[in-house]
Write a structure and sequence with these properties.
A hairpin with a 6-residue loop joins β7 and β8. The protein has an 8-stranded mixed β-sheet, with helices on one face. Strands 9-10-11 form a 3-stranded antiparallel β-sheet. The radius of gyration is 19 Å and the shape is globular. By secondary structure, it is an alpha/beta fold. Helices cover 31% and strands 16% of the residues.
């Protein structure tokens, strides 16, 4: 994208402030990879200055996190989710096509040291690619106090053969039986779609996110603002509301709030992944995946 197509931090702040006046209280910075954008702590500080926001979090691949964890915490960031699909260095390079596993592991420790807790580890489980590591990730909740979330793979590519790589949560749970009996538990921060469990004597937790086999659309209360200023009521739907052009055209706070309310009212009852319907107008990395 051209630089002029991307919202400035001040513009993001203006839109966020309008959303907060409508009742939004939680903000997550995601991507793509948010830490590649220069001066991200400045945006965090701007958002943290909005009184009624009670939670600011970040989703990152963790590769650059060790360099910024302390500064982000000082700016007002409260916690992080780290995308990590493997604990094997060679496999990490194949899946991510950038960075090194060691950097992400350092990022996890830096986030913990900075107090960005709970640090949650997001693993998208893919059959034949990383599903053999499910027990290894789960064991880290016992040995290292990790908070691991296993996520079903969503078929978001035009090549629907990716469906063959889906591992259901029920299958994931069966593979964890040798580690012991999991008990349901609650988490102290974050109220997303995951259902949480804990092994006996574990200080960490295990969450399961089921966007395919047990979708949670009926309780979704999220909106996604893209880098180029489009508001998406649903991750898995092409519909977008252009906020950038009205904002740059001098729209008032009332007019911005009217557009946000229109977006909220248009949220669909559910996605149709099972029927083969997937969003086509943007790569998943542009809408928070």
């Amino acid at each position: 994208m051209e630089h002029s197509d991307i919202l400035s931090y001040e513009e993001i702040h203006t839109i966020t402030r309008a959303a907060v006046e409508l009742g939004i209280t939680k903000i997550r910075l995601t991507g793509g990879e948010p830490l590649v954008r220069a001066g991200l702590p400045e945006l965090v500080q701007l958002l943290a200055g909005i009184d009624t926001i009670d939670d600011i979090s970040l989703t990152t691949n963790g590769i650059l996190l060790a360099n910024y964890a302390d500064e982000l915490k000082r700016a007002g960031l409260q916690r992080v989710n780290i995308s990590l699909d493997t604990l094997k260095p060679e496999r990490f390079a194949e899946i991510t096509r950038c960075g090194q596993l060691e950097d992400t592991l350092k990022g996890i420790e830096a986030a913990k040291s900075a107090g960005l807790n709970p640090v949650k580890i997001n693993m998208v489980v893919m059959a034949g690619i990383n599903d053999d590591e499910i027990p290894d990730f789960a064991a880290r909740t016992i040995s290292d106090g990790w908070h691991v979330r296993f996520i079903e793979l969503m078929p978001l590519a035009e090549d629907m053969s990716i469906v063959s790589k889906l591992v259901s949560v029920s299958d994931m749970k069966r593979r964890l039986d040798p580690l012991g009996k999991m008990e349901p538990c609650r988490v102290s921060a974050g109220n997303g779609p995951a259902k949480y469990f804990r092994f006996p004597n574990a200080t960490g937790t295990i969450g399961f996110i089921t966007p395919v086999t047990e979708h949670f659309c009926y309780q979704c209360n999220r909106l996604r603002l893209t880098a180029d200023g489009k508001l998406r009521p649903c991750l898995l739907n092409n519909k977008e509301f252009n906020l950038r052009e009205p904002l740059r055209g001098g729209a008032s706070a009332v007019e911005l709030k009217t557009l946000i309310l229109e977006a909220i009212a248009s949220k669909p009852l559910g996605h149709n992944l099972a029927g083969g319907s997937t969003p086509r107008n943007r790569p998943f990395s542009q809408v928070g995946g």
